Amino acid sequence: MEPDLSALGHLGNTSVVGLQWGDEGKGKIVDLLTGQFDYAVRWNGGSNAGHSVQVGAVKYAFHLIPSGILHPHCICVLANGVVIDPIQLVQEIDALAGQGLELRDKLRISSQAHVVLPHHKLQDQLSEGRLGNQRLGTTARGIGPCYADKALRAGALRMADLIDEDRLRSRLPVIVSEKNRLLQRLYDAEPLAWEPIFEQYRGCAEQLREHVCDTTDLLQEAWRNHRRLLFEGANAVLLDLDHGTFPFVTSSNCGTGLSAGAGVPGAALTSILGVAKAYCTRVGAGPFPTEQNNAIGEHLRQRGHEYGTTTGRPRRCGWLDLVALRYAVRVCGVTGLCLMLLDVLSGMDALRLCTAYRHAGRYTEGFPPDAYDLARAEPVYETLPGWSESLEDTTRRADLPANARRYLERIEAFVQTPIRMVSVGAARHQTMTC
Ligand code: IMP
């Protein structure tokens, strides 16, 4: 059974963003909404993202391909702001084909999107290894080095270069040789040979060529023709390069970069849905004031299956941080919240919500923009009573236990944004709209 989405009304062009440190369940929301849209667009990040979607008994995991791919009429776009690992993308296309999903007319890839090369992944790993206990805990997918080369401009390769064999043959040796000099001097790395990379990437290009086009033009035309656009943000606001907990962030503007990453102005959007868990998680290093490094954190991890989709790493777990959530909502201009994994909180006697921090002897309800300050901020909690009932079969907000409703109301009041969807399980039907 599909959930009743009519309570959401007409959404218009919509952006879906993660409001915490990633893994909030954006994939499920996008999958549910895509039926109402003509285009599903990824505009940032790369295969560091992991979206999982469950349809019936089948579980799909995506890293690059938009979750909207499961809807037959929806065109899926990897726009210019995405960094594309062609090997990973071809694997995902093949895996979906193996599950009976043919992407021929459904997938469009920007010719301006940058390509992740083997040395980006190597550099990511070597740099993390060198940093030791100062490491960022990246996904080792080459995201940072690829975006860095994009900003540097020399040494970057775009999809248009990849699919043009002559260009690939002339650019790759220069790029690889320059990178070898750098990696050898910095990390004592073995030099990479360009020829096998050329062969492997040429093979990928064969498969991807038919999907590559000018996606800015495609999306502009779609917008002019009143086609419905759904933008699927990867990663999350607290990992945003400018507005997240720098340097413990990813290398794209995951909360705020939509117009740069897709070539469509923010004015095209009528709804911005922010996705948050009913508690908090984080993978990788960085400050996390409400982290519970104890039995509560372990309980959340087990009940919420909190292990990374991309790396399998156990996620750090803790109480919902309303200060951070309100900050993320404001930075992105969120018009409605989607609260995920509320069912995981069933059976806990009391629930804590962080409503302020104490830092350097001061009390503040503001989110410190500096990771060093945040790491020293002590959360100030409000405690609400929990509930014992299982929520997995609840289909209406009004039918939730009174204490669960109170929890939702407190979130809305603090963040000053309405909750539009509540998720109580992985399946599509385990979703309430409000
Ligand atoms: P990178 O994006 O691989 O460079 O990793 C930088 C930081 O962002 C690390 O802490 C990662 O764990 C985190 N990160 C990147 N993408 C995601 C995501 O989609 N979910 C959760 N964490 C992420």
| Outline | globular
Strand order of the largest sheet: 9-7-5-2-10-1-11-15-19-20
Number of helices: 13
Q: Please name the fourth-level CATH homologous superfamily of the largest domain.
A: Adenylosuccinate Synthetase, subunit A, domain 3
What is the subunit arrangement here? single chain
Question: Can you tell me the CATH topology of the largest domain?
Answer: Adenylosuccinate Synthetase, Chain A, domain 3
Low-confidence stretches: none
Ligand types: inosinic acid
Query: N-to-C terminal Cα separation, in Å?
Result: 18 Å
Strand content: 15-25%
Return the CATH architecture of the largest domain: Alpha-Beta Complex
For the CA atoms, what is the radius of gyration?
22 Å
Which structural category do the helix and sheet elements fall into? alpha/beta
What's the β-strand tally?
A: 20
The major β-sheet equals: 10 strands, mixed
Total number of distinct structural domains: 2
Q: In CATH's first tier, which class of the largest domain applies?
A: Alpha Beta
Q: Average pLDDT across residues?
A: 94
